[in-house]
Amino acid sequence: MNRSELNKRLVSLMLVGPLFLFLVLFFAVPLVSMMKSAVSDPVAAEVLPATARAVSGWDRSSPPSDEMKAALVADLRQIGEDQLFGDLVRRLNSAKSGFRTLMPKTRAAALEAGGNIDLVALDRRWADPSYWQAVTVATSSTITDRNLLAAVDLQRDASNTIVALPPDASANKAIMIRTFVMSLTVTLACVLIGLPFAMITASVDGWKRQLLLGAVLLPLWTSLLVRTAAWFILLQDRGPINSMLTYLGIISAPLPLIFNRTGVIIAMTHVLLPFMVLPIFSVLIGIPKNLMPAAASLGAHPVRAFLSVLLPLSLRGVVSGALLVFMSALGYYITPALIGGAKDQMISSVIAYYATGAANWGMAGALGLVLLAATMILYAIYLRLSSDREARP
Amino acid sequence: MSNPFIRLEEVSKSFGALTVVEGLNLEIGKGEFISLLGPSGSGKTTILMMLAGFENPSHGTIWAGGRRIDCLPPHKRNMGVVFQNYALFPHMSVSENVAFPLKMRGFSRTEMNGRVGKALDMVQLGALADRRPSQLSGGQQQRVALARALIFEPEVVLMDEPLGALDKQLREQMQLDIRELHRRLELTIVFVTHDQSEALTMSDRIAIFNGGKIEQIGTPTNIYDHPSTQFVAEFIGETNLVRGSVQGTEGLTTRVQLQSGQEVLVELGSNRLPKGNVCLSIRPERIKVGRGKISGNIITAVISDVVYHGDHLRLIAKTDGQSIVVKTDRSQPALSIGEEVQLFFLPTDCWVVGP
Amino acid sequence: MKILNAALIACALTSVGIAAAEARDLTVVSWGGNYQDAQRKIYFEPFAKQLGKPVLDESWDGGYGVLQAKVKAGVPNWDAVQVEAEELALGCADGIYEKIDWEKLGGKSKFLPAAVSDCGVGAIVWSTGISYDGDKLKEAPTSWADFWDTKKIPGKRGLRKGAKYALEFALMADGVAADQVYTVLATPEGVDRAFKKLDELKPNIVWWEAGAQPLQLLSSGEVVMTSAYNGRITGLNRTEGKHFGFVFPGSIYAIDSWVVLKDSPNKDAALDFIAYASKPDNQSQLPQYIAYGLPNIEAGKLVPEKYQAELPTSPDNLKGAITLDVDFWTDNSEALTQRFNAWLAQ
């Protein structure tokens, strides 16, 4: 490679540099850190090294030995940083409730008095093997599948085999399935409304087209929260919709439109409709204008011409629109939270709870990872199906 | 025409205030190849669209095969249409495209396959049946469009500048192919074009359109040799327009004095010209150049340019401010610019195209 | 994907935080609605005048993870935050708050004992209980049993979305005496019993999250009764002439505290602000806008007689009310919330 060619390459690399950096910083790094937080579990093993050694030989059922207790006290005295201790407590408490109060109490006692402390006298919970089991599991490894298992309602029992969580303890699987079902419903509703809308928009021109496109684009320029709030006002029991229907005498009691699935689907469909209409529209205006006349001249009734020419050709737009809508719907959070009832919450609200409510980033990461994996599988299926169709002679 | 297959009676079409076709009458015979020729905006494509049923006439009626068709929707007219940009269905293979009209007519699968095979063989595309239109060249696409428009044996085939997007060589090949199909299948073809040479080579008759009206209609020879208006004379082929005034008629010949003062004789057959100003059309290839004396009309002129065209020479001669183009073969002795020459042409080779 | 967003925000916060660290004015965060309006009038605006610099105020709806993420990001973009007791305990143990200099506040003895912590200073004593629209309801509810009785008072009910409070109220509705609630809830059977009781009311519950929401739900008639914070109810009655009632027996009171986020760039100003908001003269103005009890003992005495009766700390209102068991919730919040969310989803 000569010098000028090398220079050219360097320049072109520099041009894509910012994009590359952006992708790494805002896509790759967060994604990797999310995956890492889902499986990494280093805090207990790092902070409690002596305890880790002491409990490694323990049979996980007999009463805790004095050696284990002494090691724990020694480790607790070593912890200098409060935030690190906080991480440890949070890790242990998420495995077994009670460590929140137990650990600070024990640490305070350990720092106050020198020498050996009678832990059981300090708190009876230290005689309970289940607390020690939690410590043992937490210190045994720096990576864990606990979060990933919990994300799909599974856990490891005392004998380390994978079992289902008790049905009333977790509903991640149900919520995950609900998320997909709701997203699919919204996608379907968007296709049913968006396809005819895009076709009408593409068939007219001048101010009519501008008006119709504006009707789709305008909501995009309003914040999601505002649009959702508007639907909140419209849909409530004494909102304009119910008031009008009652006034017209169509209904006697208000229709339940809010705090249920119907309201969420209506609002989400409205919010996501532009992502369906625009791809279909752009495909439609790319279709040569003379195909429908051609079909007619070849003897096709307008309905058959539509079914055999226009519809299959607009399908590419429908598919990309459906993908856009479906993927966006999967992550919806504000709309179900404001308009839906308790049974209409989607997986992102659970992820948000773990991230902002419980500060359990591992669990939040694991749920995100499971969602990502499920989405990727669906996407792979889509790619497979669409490439099959393309390859067909 | 005693028994026309297609008849347009007093057909007009306006879009809002704009009148595109005005009071048009046209008859087309069965098996005829007629070209609608004219500049863009002359209304020729609108006529085709009205025949196909994509536009409805504002006034007038259209008949085909004894049926009144101007009220029928396009899919019931049974006319094959070949579009300018082919209008092939991009999501269907070549054979699916060609089978489309048969499918719409409920043919059985076996009959469909047989006919599609034959139609593709007819346009020499049998090997490409499974390709998508996007994988074909322009000429191949046009042939698919042709096969698709012919496969259901329509009574009439309408072609809207079908060769406009092809390069010159391919266009000439396709012109021959279409003519050959027309002869073999005895098709009735209405062919819209703005290319005069295409119209001349292919058609049985040509209708020249200008401003929504037919300016002249006739066989190619008739139109070329005897243009009825200045517009037609200029639009079809190349011509020299020379102005003068009628001096008198003697038998079959009329004396016309040109603006330069020189007199020429014009032989118009049975037509007699009234006195007054006339415009004469003289085709460049009819004029000969000589230094000696030859019979016929003589105009003295000065050579202002000699242009070499490979198979012929083109001389530009000036006489009293007017340019006259002369096409000669290369046996012509060399002429130099500024040389005075005499241009000869027969009285039967000039034609009066208007006042 | 929420986690992605959170990570993105964290990234952005780090960079913006570093750049804006010197430029940002003191930012105080509280619970929004008419409560924060009152705080703005008596604390934020006068303090900004005294400081000679603007004081920014934002609102939040709780969530320990929010605070933790801000501190872990490096330089937090909030300074003084009003937190609930559980967030105070968690954050203090995790070391995400600055230590309080009690000398500046006049010593620990000037405050109610429950309002004193290493990391936070009590801001209000507030109560959660049943509230209803006195103009719309002929017969007022008097207990959680009434709240659960949809035959006696038909209509939807609002409850704060979360295990905390909902489980306590359910047990009281099931006949557990107020002072026995946490004893029962500490047993697995007690938890089952609470969830079973919640099952009964589930179809009729509208869940709310922000403190201003129950007032809107009551005003719009979306619910006939709702759990709500007592101060906001009296505040709304005063400003908008409503006749919302609040049932003190069976209510649960708790203390909210001011904390300063660790490594706040405005740490000193934030501590000064807390001291300002804790002064008897300033704090005693709160009850005229919003009926919350005052942790500064001296301030409590300065409150005019006519407002005293509405405070959760008045002896009459303390009858039949219980205090939130912070230790119980610090230990059990995660497990019970998980179960509560699963229950909600079913």
Alpha-beta classification of chain B: alpha+beta
Biggest β-sheet of chain B: count, sense, barrel?
6 strands, mixed
**What string, H for helix and E for strand, traces the elements of chain B in order?**
EEEHEEEHHHEHEHEEHHEEEEEEEEEE
- Going across the biggest sheet of chain A, name each strand in turn: 1-2
- Alpha-beta classification of chain A: mainly alpha
- State the distance separating the first and last CA atoms of chain B: 30 Å
- Share of β-strand residues of chain B: 35-45%
Mean pLDDT value of chain B: 88
Chain-averaged pLDDT of chain A: 87
Large-scale geometry of chain B: elongated
Per CATH, the superfamily of the largest domain in chain B is P-loop containing nucleotide triphosphate hydrolases
| Biggest interface, residues from each chain | A-C, 63 and 48 residues
CATH topology of the largest domain in chain A: MetI-like fold
Query: Regions of chain B with pLDDT < 50 over 5+ consecutive residues?
Result: none
The percent range for helix content of chain B is 10-25%
- In helices, the fraction of residues of chain A equals over 70%
Rg value of chain A:
29 Å
